[in-house]
């Protein structure tokens, strides 16, 4: 008996998926465990294996199309097996497609008849009765401001980005028909008029999820923001010394911030918390999500038990996550379970910004660039290096004083790295 394969639920936030690539085509033999297709979820592109042996009898979702979770994906069975009942039960839209195709064909026939009728009238007209030629430089302006055009011509013009005002219609009473759009090459636009151009692309599954989750966070969680300036002179010296001692492995300033934030969260567990609607969870473990930019948007892989890991391990893990994220190789276990999030745009030259909380975390830390600025030390103005940190807090969980105390502790640890960087921590 044929088996129905539905769009799988590959992540906790996945509501629909896109088939990126089919590795099998209709008529191919499929064995259980073989890769059937690559499915793009809201977070990554994942390989989808077949659970059945048989022949691929039907593909319901073409490459590049998004369908909801549990929608019909494919059917596997015996060669020649009747699957019409399964297709009907699954609610496929073949009948609707055929109906739409017939309607389109009727429109096409109507357009052809219009053109033929116009030609017959023109051929039957006396030679002396010839209409004055219309200038090829400009199109006649419509009397009532609306261009006469067939529905099909309007649709084609919209798809091709053609302004109907500049298309000369060959239909009845100057009506623009399908053939006019197909033969239009832009020669009728007034001199000096610039053509508007744009490109539209389908929204990826990742971008849809980012839009939904961050909108929910921004408009449901009452955000407030706290900013401090951190003197990074000692941190810069410490990083330089560490990198000389552990070559070729290198640590970044972001690694230092992760390590210091993990240590500060141990002292301020209320910041390491989650809003769960009817209760607040104070996490005893520290899992820090690290925002990683990819072409389609943003992923947040998680450094688990960050407070227990040395700097080199944190740096290596973050680099590996970044590589896998850009290659779309992250798995759901890699991005689930954060208790606190760090977003660093300092590497892109951003001095200061506010980040949107990554739910269900109660806080997210925005890290700016390290800038060379004058600072006051011992009453004198001297050259210094300052980095701005901004903590976004969910006021349902974290109060202002709680967030401020955490930032002060984090500031002190970055300004005095010896507080968190013992030999075992490196």
What report would you give on this structure?
This protein is of the alpha+beta class and 426 residues long. It contains ten helices and 18 strands. It folds into three domains: 3-92, RNA polymerase II/Efflux pump adaptor protein, barrel-sandwich hybrid domain (OB fold (Dihydrolipoamide Acetyltransferase, E2P)); 138-190, E3-binding domain (Dihydrolipoamide Transferase, Irregular); 205-425, Chloramphenicol Acetyltransferase (2-Layer Sandwich), CATH 3.30.559. The chain has a six-stranded mixed sheet. Strands 1-8-6-3 form a four-stranded antiparallel sheet, with no helix packed on it. A hairpin with a 2-residue loop joins strand 17 and strand 18. The model is unreliable at 93-103 and 121-139 (pLDDT under 50).
In short:
With 426 residues, the protein is an alpha+beta fold.
Question: Would you give the CATH topology of the largest domain?
Answer: Chloramphenicol Acetyltransferase
What is the terminal separation in angstroms? 60 Å
- Read across the widest sheet, the strand sequence of neighbours is 9-18-17-16-12-15
Return residue spans where pLDDT drops below 50 for at least 5 consecutive residues: 93-103, 121-139
Count of extended strands: 18
Please provide the ordered H/E string of secondary-structure elements.
EEEEEEEEHHHHHEHHEEEEEEHHEEEH
**How many structural domains are formed by the residues?**
3
Name the CATH superfamily classification of the largest domain: Chloramphenicol acetyltransferase-like domain
| Helix content bin | 25-40%
- At the first level of CATH, the class of the largest domain is Alpha Beta
> What structural class should be given to the helix and strand makeup?
alpha+beta
Mean pLDDT figure = 83
Estimate the global geometry from the Cα principal axes.
Answer: globular
